[in-house]
Amino acid sequence: MEHLVQPISLTDAAESLRTGAVEPQKYAARTVERITEVDGTVQSFVAEPGRTDRLAHAAQEAAQCGTEPGDRPPLYGVPVGIKDIIHVEGLPTGAGSALPPEVLAGAQATVVDRLLKAGALIAGKTVTGEFAVTAPGPTRNPHRLEHTPGGTSSGSAAAVAAGLVPLAIGTQTIGSLIRPAAYCGVVGFKPSHGRIPLDGVLPVAPTFDTVGIITAQVADVALAASCLCDDWRPDRAVPGRPVLGIPEGPYMGFAEPEARSAFDEQVAALRTAGYDVVSVPMFENFEEEVFDFFVINLYELSQAHADWFARYEELYDERTAEAIRQGQGAQASDHADSLARREAFRDRLAASTAEHGVDLWITPAATGPAPLGLESAGDSVMSLPWSGVGLPCLTIPTARPEGALPLGFQCVGRDGDDERLLHWALDLETVLTARGTDTCET
């Protein structure tokens, strides 16, 4: 299945397109060819009968608008996959559901507007689990087809891993971007909550919902983030190496032996490379501390679907329906109380981060490699505390034995420190990845 895993460097693709080494029309044609070749197996894209003509037309228009390399925008001609809960003009939003697409329709998302302004081409919608909740979609893991590709941004992660597109957009409420990126062996970036606008994105739980980026390498994420995030300022990055913190305690106990052993080896490599790594007792009452996140999540989910669920309950997957019913059992006062306790949790985490001088928290990105089977998308617990308070998170694919499933290394920055996180991650990537799967140039 080596032909299924061929991630492409976004920075290389963008450079080739901007300089004219490859024309947008030819790159778009290659993209359609690759989708035709492998996506019947991987199933990362939503089927679109008119994709070839639509993308060829978009590429032709792009070529006419950027005649000189110096005039071309940063993502000129780059095809991008868009998770199918994000509205794109001219493409229906199905959200992995059986509901009529016209019921879910809405204005094009700001993140799509920014992609188009940066010169990108929309390759199509990527598969999502139903309404980005828990029920998996049909996407398969390009590394091993019988293993899950992860959470509800699985289509976006698999599309990048399979080399269908060099950039895909996903979302994360709890762990639905970081985990599939880790399982599929690519880089996933969940910015600080609110850095990329959420308008035009079907809501799950707005307190947590975050638009994120999936690429092959950290430098690729930095390029995309500079185009998509509000007030992006590379000068916020600072010289020197960050202090890395390991949140020891019950939370780290969720990592399976394979993941923890690999993580310990990664930490040893970082220490050898000169990084200062501190272990900090954290989350001593983890399950009690994060219980309120589930209350918030389910209550807001039920509110978002109040109208649709009342009219189309019988069309929902039972797993999604059960989550909505649980949320309906909560009161507005329960939600308000949970939000208040969430703020207290955020304050405690920020205080511990400052007290121990931690610049980045580091953890396994998932409890282990992608589990066998497609009925479950795996466990999101390693993302839970960080998503719960809106911190920026990144997963880096790490070196692994030949034939082994990918394992991701998660880095978590301070709120709003997205630029520093990505800057520091460039060197972390160098230490952690004698890459198990090489990226392909254009």
Would you kindly provide a written description of the structure presented here, covering whatever features stand out?
By secondary structure, the chain is α/β, with parallel strands linked by helices. The protein has a single domain (1-435), classed as Amidase signature (AS) enzymes. 40% of the residues lie in helices and 12% in strands. Strands 2-1-3-5-4-9-10-8-6-7 form a ten-stranded mixed sheet, sandwiched between helices. The longest helix has 24 residues, at 332-355. The two termini are 21 Å apart. The model is unreliable at 435-442 (pLDDT under 50). It holds the Pfam family Amidase. This is Amidase.
